[in-house]
Automatic annotation (TrEMBL), chains A, B:
It comes from Blastomonas marina. Signal peptide: none annotated. PANTHER family: LACI-RELATED TRANSCRIPTIONAL REPRESSOR (PTHR30146), LACTOSE OPERON REPRESSOR (PTHR30146:SF153). Pfam families: LacI, Peripla_BP_3. The lineage of its organism: Bacteria, Pseudomonadati, Pseudomonadota, Alphaproteobacteria, Sphingomonadales. SMART domains: HTH_LACI. The keyword Hydrolase does not apply. This is LacI family transcriptional regulator. CDD domains: HTH_LacI. Residues 8-62 form the HTH lacI-type domain. The keyword Transcription applies. Keywords: DNA-binding, Transcription, Transcription regulation. PROSITE patterns: HTH_LACI_2.
Length: 350, 350
DNA sequence: TTGAAAGCGCTAACAC
DNA sequence: GTGTTAGCGCTTTCAA
């Protein structure tokens, strides 16, 4: 266990094993053309000295940087962190991304970028120049920001677009928003609901309309009207309040509502309570996201889980293994409906 | 806006400005011995070409790596992420750490390390060799793991120890656990409580006993007994359940309980409800941590906020500015008592 | 199958 | 003040 003050380099290993630097390099990178005996000898020296290649040096000499950049919207992310309302998007990204990356000897670094900024390009460009990541994971709304995707494509950096279906450079991935909305709707249909309201999310996110489309289609297939049953919010709590009020003020009021985010659905729950409606007796609720908070409301919300960790894990894999191009796109990772206490049969009077 | 396929290097800038590489380097690093006119000219080229130095190259040539490593306990962190119970420790670290780091041109990278593992040293050593971070932020229980602090010291890497008071290498930092417990106790005292129970955290964390000490001292100063009023948990929900049952089974039952974590305090709330006690009418509760979930219980919990973001931000600053050594240690960043709905005067009968 | 040489982009040390 | 030289630790030629 030689432990030098300065960390051990490839030279030390080469000297110890009595081979050239090149051979050590080949062993590190699992390259062919190394005789087993040689390989073993070198590996022994590596283990003995506790040698670990310097990523900076590897990157310098034109090889990989072993870095994946996960990019999130700055404003939104900081707002979430500051509000401390229980959103765990970033944690789930880390859970899926970091762990998968590290299995492959990579690291994942979070980077915050302003979408609305005029200088997204400069901001992101600087990060790319400084870090030279081997891959980038884009989350909504960046996934569909052509300034960003364009820059990445131009620089020849592999990237995944979470929440995007469009063809084009980068690996498109979705969490099956359409199918999830269908599943939620179908669940309510099976319980006997016919007036199922829907609170859509911000138009800035394509997935908002995929969810809406899934609900609409399923309603249509069941021969049911959607007419005035959809209201648009912006994913936030306040917009949910407004949307819920609108829906619950309808003459033929919905007996169930699907909210496109936990915040909006929780807001709906609050409005329901305000109006003396009991959930799920008078009103069934299904939420999208399944962030921690849905477990703490009363009743606990039935929700569509967003498989963020799984999706990011898959993205990182595709980025690292470099077979993202061969895979059929969009890559879809489906979430599931987690049934809790906010859904039941509609009131019998209806 | 020259935009090359390959990113622009220091050479391009030097050529464009008609100066030597070194001069450009000096400008980048804000070094002296560059005439203002020269500096301006170089800066103009930098801006024009959109040049950003490659961190890998900077690191290679013996300068900084512009990287701060934030190390968390692997097992605990993954458990938290998987449980999705609303803990936001990592988010708060990122909020404080990432943002502060980026203000200084640094990045913060999260790294998960097993404390209990026999090969902490190898694991951490590998990360250090690969990344060569300029600084490391240690969180409990790593902060007091001498294998870890020893390795860091040996390698000459600056580090901060959050939740540690001991002298020794690295910057010791606390969130004033003792003072916070005092504040919580005092708040209850002022409301008129005299039987104040305390649920301590795992002994593996020194801060558990600092909190306990703060409570004990304050109780003592008020001439009050602590005798059977302290039960130890492990920060987790189940241990809180057990501790609360023990405390509430006491003959002279406490009218208030301070829990050393949100999970344990929430468990206490549940036990109270089980036993038909109303909070805060029959029992007051104060929690430690102030993670998102305390906002979603009924009643909302009064809690001592752990100023994680602030603390990590300060740690990163001290690490980057390299004046951590001159600062008085331990560096303490105080949290505050956030009064919500779980504290009131004790039942009048008492 | 192995090794030697060159160079990645940058900065330290030294000259000028 | 500014430029030159060397070299960081590694991988990519290319030669043996």
């Amino acid at each position: 266990m030689a432990r030098r003050r300065q960390s051990v380099t490839i030279k030390h290993v080469a000297a110890d094993a009595g081979v050239s630097l090149q051979t050590v390099s080949r062993v590190i990178n699992n390259e062919p053309n190394v005789r087993p005996a040689m390989k073993e000898r070198v590996q022994a020296s590596i283990d003995k000295l506790g040698y670990v290649p310097s990523i900076a040096a590897q990157r310098m000499s034109g090889s990989r940087s072993y870095l994946i950049l996960a990019i999130n919207d700055r404003e939104r992310t900081i707002a979430d962190w500051t509000a401390r309302q229980g959103g765990d998007w970033v944690d789930q990204m880390l859970l899926g991304g970091m762990l998968t990356a590290s299995e492959h000897g990579y690291r994942m670094l979070i980077e915050l970028v302003d979408t609305h900024d005029d200088h997204v390009e400069r901001e992101l460009g600087a990060a790319l120049s400084a870090l030279h990541p081997d891959g980038v994971v884009l989350t909504p709304p960046h996934s569909e920001n052509s300034q960003i995707t364009g820059l990445l494509a131009e620089r020849g950096i592999r990237f995944a677009r979470i929440g995007s279906k469009e063809p084009g450079p980068g690996i498109a991935m979705t969490m099956d928003d359409d199918g999830a909305a269908e599943e939620a709707t179908r669940h309510l249909l099976e319980l006997g609901h016919t007036r199922i309201g829907f609170i859509a999310g911000s138009e800035e996110y394509s997935l908002s309309d995929w969810r809406k489309a899934g609900w609409e289609r399923t309603m249509g297939e069941a021969g049911l009207d959607c007419d005035d049953l959809c209201v648009r919010g912006d994913f936030g709590f306040d917009s949910g309040l407004a949307a819920a009020r609108k829906l619950l003020a309808l003459d033929d009021r919905p007996t169930a509502i699907i909210g496109s985010s936990d915040q909006m659905t929780l807001a709906t729950l609050e409005v329901a309570h305000e109006q003396g409606l009991e959930v799920p007796r008078d009103l069934s609720l299904i939420s999208f996201d399944n962030t921690p908070i849905v477990r703490f409301s009363n009743p606990k919300l039935t929700a569509i889980d967003q498989p963020i960790a799984k999706t990011i894990a898959r993205a990182v894999e595709l980025l690292i293994d470099r077979d993202g191009d061969e895979v059929e796109q969009p890559v879809v990772v489906s979430g599931e409906l987690v049934v809790r206490q906010s859904t039941a049969a509609p009131p019998s009077g209806t």
